[in-house]
Amino acid sequence: MNSASPQTHRTVALVGASGSGKTTLAEALLHRAGAIPRTGSVEQGNTVCDHEPEEIARHTSLGLSLAHLDWTGPDGTAYTVTLADTPGHPDFVGAVDAALSVADVALITVSAVDGVVAGTRAAWDAAAAAGVPHVVVVTQEDKARADFRRVLAELRAEFGEHLWALELPIGEEAAFRAIADVLSEEAHVYDDDGTHHDEPLPPEAEAEEHAMHVEVTEDIVSHDDAQLEAYLEGDEPSASELGRTFAREVADGEAVPVLVCSGVNGTGVDRVADLVCELTPAATDRDGRILVGEGSGGSELKVAPNEEGDTLVHVFRTVADPFVGQVSMLKVLSGTLRTGDKLRNATTGVDERIHGLFRLRGAEHVTAGTLAAGEVGAVAKLTGSPSGSLLWSRASGTARPAATPPRPPVYAVALEPASQSDDEKLPVALARLTAEDPTLVVDRAGDQTVLRGLGDTHVAVAVERLARIFGVKVETRPAPVAYRETIAGKASVEGKLKKQSGGHGQFAVVQLTVSPLPPGDGFEFVDSVTGGAVPRQYITAVEKGARDALATGGPQGHPVVDVRVELTDGKTHSVDSSDMAFRTAASIGVKAALAEAGTVLLEPVSSVTVTVPNDLQGAVLTDLSGRRGRVSATEAASDGRARVVAHVPESELTRYVLDLRSITAGQAELTITPDHYAKAPSAARA
């Protein structure tokens, strides 16, 4: 195993639509690098990156998987590469965000058969939000109906003319065994073992390749004054000189190379590794970013990847392993991390010790003595460092990684433990699960535990992991709608408690006026007692009793909100009165007022934002109308799509994310945020 060098290290996030060949490409790269003896397949469930049982069963990536390899470039430079294979399913976009938060480059895979689809746009947008350079790889060029030229046209139409094909396939579908190198104007012809030899371009490819060569060359030299001057004088730069200039464009986001390969027959795979290493910035070429300070704000601080600086480590993803416990994937932003180091978690305040560093190759742990600034690895048993933590050698200060895009949950289920033992273990298991994946959210709805995520598959996989990893079995059912009640009118009542059972009794009388408040005002307690009818020491107990009654629920069985309780008078006893007596009397009085005046059922209403292509806006509006949605705005998004904002009752949103994906063929972006309560129609049911 070569010792990693940050100057030649690359962390490459493989992102793209589901089914676009990310995992297959990772497998081919690992095999071509000699890291694995043979390639597995997603269909057979034996790939390096899709190693979790849930992934094998579904034949798709569901989490973030790292795979380390060593690569030697054509000039003999030794590189270390960490592939971060990510899911294409929209439910697991949190894993994409985690990978991009530490990546040096985003390798966006696009199927030569399917072309640009909704998942391609999502991957592109995520990479752009993370601010990392892009490289596009057109995969599956060996498949039936593969069409590189069509896909290239789609890419440039969707993302801009700054996408440049550096390779052209010579032959497609089953005949794809060679590539035309646009910069060197040579043909790379592949043998069965995945290696290639160079030949002159075949006559049928010369014209197209040369035209592309001229276009790319003119774009490259326009970014370098010396090269441009030489080019205008008829002296064209060499392929290596063009490559160096083009690499600066890639790093600055001014150009995106488009490559082509087949992960199945190996054609072009080595060139993908070569060009990613040659054309993208090294781990030490980009500063990290953290937020320093308390609260939700904090000031942004750039962190230079200096091996001699303070040790600063970003824990970007944690995974529960049934054999070794928690495995934390991490990137060293500054300094050098060594086994045995003791660091403070600047995000949670917990002290952690590094028990043993390793690099990941799927489920395999490859021992690493140290990790220098810019490198990615892993460590086990950092129990106090959830995903999104920063470990620091400094003894004080609060910090966290720079913010990733918020991914609010849009789908929920209620969890019903299968046994008393499962019920007891559930809170701890859920805490560990959400520490791994911040896009999972747990809350309570009455006496029920609700698990929220980004879709039905996201939640289903979480439930499977609860059973497999943590030994907690649960049943799921639709999440309850959090209805509320409010008093329908004003009522003046007496709350009275009078008991005598030997010794001290219990006595308290309160006169209350209970009335509605404006929507959203919550609860108000007013003390209007005069003359000491209720001693001052019991006033707080009266307020607590009123709150007890409202929380217990009104006549329709739901917590009561937006209520004003006024204490106007009362009676006390010198011996038998107490805090508890007045608390109980107040609760009795409030319940009597709710029964007398009646209550109005309130339903939660959420703010829903949907961003879709313009031609799908009408279908979205029609569907929202059918869900009792009230559209508050329709506007043009910055990328030319349409954005629809509406208020929709929560009861109509149970499966909305799934229905929306069906309506829009997965092209919609959705956020759902709780907004307010409104009077429910008479047909509403809890």
UniProtKB/TrEMBL annotation:
Record-level Gene Ontology MF annotations: GTP binding; GTPase activity; translation elongation factor activity
Pfam families found in the cross-reference section: EF-G_D2, EFG_C, EFG_III, EFG_IV, GTP_EFTU
Listed PROSITE patterns: G_TR_2 (PS51722)
CDD domains xrefs: EFG_mtEFG1_IV, EFG_mtEFG_C
Any Gene Ontology biological process: ribosome disassembly
Keyword terms, alphabetized: Elongation factor, GTP-binding, Nucleotide-binding, Protein biosynthesis
Every Tr-type G domain range: 7-284
InterPro entries: EF-G-like_DII, EFG_II, EFG_III/V, EFG_IV, EFG_V, EFG_V-like, P-loop_NTPase, Ribosomal_Su5_D2-typ_SF
SUPFAM superfamilies xref list: EF-G C-terminal domain-like (SSF54980), P-loop containing nucleoside triphosphate hydrolases (SSF52540), Ribosomal protein S5 domain 2-like (SSF54211), Translation proteins (SSF50447)
First and last residue of the signal peptide: none
Domain of life: Bacteria
NCBIfam families in UniProt: PRK12740.1-3, PRK12740.1-5, small_GTP
Protein name as it appears in the record: Elongation factor G
